[in-house]
Amino acid sequence: MQSSVQALRGAGIAGTGACVPERVLTNFDLEKMVDTSDEWIVERTGIRERRIARNGEVTSDLAAQAAAAALDDAGVSAGEVDLIIVATVTPDMPFPSCACVVQAKIGATNAAAFDIGAGCTGFVYALSMAHDLVAAGRYSKVLVIGAETLSRITNWSDRNTCVLFGDGAGAALVRPLERGDGLLAFVLGADGARGEVLTLPAGGSAHPASHDTVDQGMHYIHMQGNQVYRFAVRIMVEATREVLERAGLAEGDIDVVIPHQANQRLIDLAAERLGSPEKVYSNVARFGNTSAASIPIALDEASRTGKLKTGDRVLLVGFGAGLTWGAAILRWCKDEFHA
Ligand SMILES: CC(C)(COP(=O)(O)OP(=O)(O)OC[C@H]1O[C@@H](n2cnc3c(N)ncnc32)[C@H](O)[C@@H]1OP(=O)(O)O)[C@@H](O)C(=O)NCCC(=O)NCCS
Predict the structure, then answer these.
(1) What's the 179 CA to ligand 1 centre distance in angstroms?
(2) Ligand 1: distance of its center to the CA of 128 in Å?
(3) Is 50 exceeded by the pLDDT of residue 339?
(4) With 60 as the cut, is the pLDDT of residue 281 above it?
(5) Domains along the chain?
(6) For residue 315, which phi and psi values (nearest 5 degrees)?
(7) Which of 286, 290, 288, 265 is nearest to 277 (CA)?
(8) Reported pTM
(9) Among residues 27, 100, 263, 289, which one is catalytic?
(10) Is 248 left (phi over 0), alpha (psi -120 to 50) or beta?
């Protein structure tokens, strides 16, 4: 999908924030819960530990803290925000939306608010929407949040899935730029015909929650891991090539790559095929796969640890349930908002 919005102005990321729960669940903890081993998990996924929300801690709590940190980073007050988009597959409840709960929690009383569901690609989808709405002159301070508590939809007795996921949230504030553009190009895609390889079957109109759906574990993530793996390797490479072409750039023009943090093997393979392993940012060992939160958490870490320099060209690339994929190229220009 190519954005066809009539751009009146550029847009860029003016601040980022992240929040992960305090509780750490290590591979050694998992060894006591299912038939697995630290060695197997590290070798197949690169994950060593993940964060798990405590009882009562919900997606909007993590999202609100990440949002507050992004606002602080951008030097913008909650009352100035005019739109909140939350990408999530684990909202606090089907409705009201997680974005509306966040709006109330941070006191962004002048903001419109809605959620989008594009699986682990959600943040890239939301960022693309934020760019278009800001570039078209519709909104000026858009909070884009990726937030998940996947631990609530994980079957903790299924070793095929429970070792992979974690909880967390990341956020970015998108604002108009006086000159040039900060968000240079996007590619979004979907293949709904292949959606069955990664689903949460129950709780919607197809299978409303019932004793039966609970007995069958249909309220948990169901995944054909090897199918997702093959799709992910192919699509990360294809989406990257397409977004580079759209931006009129070559691989060598990219300074930092922030892929969806699903699995270190996947990240390594995609990086190898793209010929840029040293540019790839990874924190999957510490947080596991946090779905829509993974890219913004990594972006915030990369920013705060000085890995992102003004003018750097950053590639974001993700894939997830849907099946969906998305890639973005941005120019790191946070300092231009504080000049
Ligand atoms: C899930 C994944 C790590 C599995 O790795 P894999 O190399 O494909 O492993 P397989 O599925 O082929 O399983 C190999 C064996 O390990 C076993 N196994 C699976 N999980 C295990 C675990 N946690 N511990 C130990 N053994 C495990 C399987 O049961 C299987 O055993 P079998 O051969 O006796 O049946 C990998 O497929 C993957 O990362 N897929 C992508 C998942 C993803 O990113 N999902 C989110 C998308 S946003």
Answers:
(1) 48
(2) 32
(3) yes
(4) yes
(5) 1-339 (3.40.47.10)
(6) -105, 125
(7) 265
(8) 0.95
(9) 289
(10) left
Ligand 1 atom nearest residue 265's Cα: 39
Asked if residue 243 has its Cβ within 6 Å of ligand 1, the reply is no
- The phi-psi region of residue 14 (left if phi > 0; otherwise alpha if psi is between -120 and 50; otherwise beta) is alpha
Residue position matching structure tokens 């349930």: 321
SS3 179: coil
Q: Is 289 a catalytic residue?
A: yes
Rounded CA-CA distance 55/145 in Å is: 22
Structure tokens at 44: 């197949």
- Residue 334 — left, alpha, or beta (φ > 0 → left; ψ -120 to 50 → alpha)? alpha
Average pLDDT of the residues in 313-334: 96
pLDDT (mean) for 247-271: 93
- Residue for token digits 């039966």? 212
Give me the count of residues in the chain. 339
User: Which residue pairs from 97-102 have beta carbons closer than 8 angstroms and sit at least 24 positions apart in sequence?
Assistant: 98/59, 98/60, 98/63, 98/147, 99/145, 101/60, 101/64, 102/60, 102/63, 102/64, 102/67, 102/143, 102/145
pLDDT at 338 over 80: no
Instruction: Answer whether 227 contacts ligand 1 (Cβ < 6 A).
Output: no
Per-residue pLDDT, 269: 85
pLDDT digits (tens, 9 = 90+) for 201-224: 999 999 999 999 999 999 999 999
Which segments within the chain are labelled E, that is strand?
10-19, 24-26, 49-51, 83-87, 112-116, 142-149, 167-177, 183-190, 198-199, 222-223, 256-259, 313-320, 324-331
Banded pLDDT at 6 (limits 50, 70, 90): low
Which atom of ligand 1 sits closest to the CA of residue 260?
48
Whether residue 320 has its Cβ less than 6 Å from ligand 1: yes
- The pLDDT value given to residue 1: 45
- Amino acid in the structure at residue 268: D
